[in-house]
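Fill in residues.
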């Protein structure tokens, strides 16, 4: 069995994506990793070239931003087209996998390799927001997605590249992995978040009035979101240690929830409770 990892990235350094951490999180179980690097205004290409692995294969492209969100699926499919493995494992560059889940994922791929009725493997999602210890489960924030697809040539990315479909338009036949995708796209300083939101305006047509006026993105009261008590992927350790708001939030969490067994044992747990009404209407459709 061969496994291909693949991703796309453009201006990732300027927008502070954890590019290397994302790639390195699944590199141990990949036989190759395809990185589609769009022509950038920063050192994104150089950063990818510095990742020390002969598994990395770089494809350089130029993105047509006039396509809107569809350019993301187009570029994702270009990367997928270069994959040679039996399975293709897709991560966006602000998504990371925990090392504790790698054996399980490898086992799942081996288990279903010879079963043509399985098209994809599904993950649960942790959308961290404002702090590395808070996550979103309200309306508009998807809680599961397929990220490992059978590399049969019959599956493609579509829309804004958050999901995959079969070419014959039949529903994907999926199996659950039980593993998490750790999504860090909403854990930055207020200034960086504002810049990222404005940059995404090149692709997304929704307004960015707050950021344009203030140069800051307001997270609001983080206490209204569920607490994540578990560990994070080891590749993110330094990243998290340098995040001021997360450090302040964790101090408050420990003070308040010192009695909670989830905190004692650092359990990687996400509540199944869903909030039907979005907490903030401006955040009902988060970009990557």
């Amino acid at each position: 069995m061969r496994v291909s990892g693949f991703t796309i990235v453009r201006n990732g350094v300027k927008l502070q994506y954890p590019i290397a951490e994302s790639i390195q999180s699944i590199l141990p179980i990949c036989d190759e990793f395809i990185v589609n690097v769009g022509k950038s205004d920063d050192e994104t290409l150089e950063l990818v070239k510095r990742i020390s692995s002969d598994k990395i294969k770089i494809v350089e492209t130029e993105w047509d931003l006039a396509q809107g969100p569809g350019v993301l699926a187009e570029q994702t499919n270009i990367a997928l087209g270069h994959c040679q493995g039996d399975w293709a494992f897709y991560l966006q560059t602000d998504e990371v996998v925990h090392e504790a889940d790698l054996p399980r994922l490898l086992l799942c791929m081996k288990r279903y390799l010879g079963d043509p009725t399985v098209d994809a493997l599904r993950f649960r999602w942790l959308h961290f927001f404002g702090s590395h210890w808070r996550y979103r489960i309200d309306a508009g924030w998807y809680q599961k997605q397929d990220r490992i697809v059978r590399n049969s040539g019959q599956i493609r990315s579509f829309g804004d590249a958050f999901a995959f479909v079969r070419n014959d338009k039949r529903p994907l036949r999926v199996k659950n992995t039980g593993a998490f995708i750790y999504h860090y796209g909403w854990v930055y300083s207020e200034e960086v978040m504002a810049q990222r939101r404005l940059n995404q305006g090149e692709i997304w047509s929704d307004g960015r009035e707050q950021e344009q006026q203030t140069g800051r993105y307001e997270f609001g009261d983080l206490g209204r979101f569920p607490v994540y008590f578990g560990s994070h992927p080891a590749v993110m350790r330094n990243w998290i240690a340098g995040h001021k708001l997360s450090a302040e939030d964790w101090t408050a969490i420990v003070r308040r929830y010192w009695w909670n067994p989830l905190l004692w044992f650092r359990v990687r747990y996400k509540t199944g409770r869903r909030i039907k009404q979005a907490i903030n209407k401006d955040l009902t459709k988060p970009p990557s």
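The domain at 1-288 is CATH 3.90.550 (Spore Coat Polysaccharide Biosynthesis Protein SpsA; Chain A).
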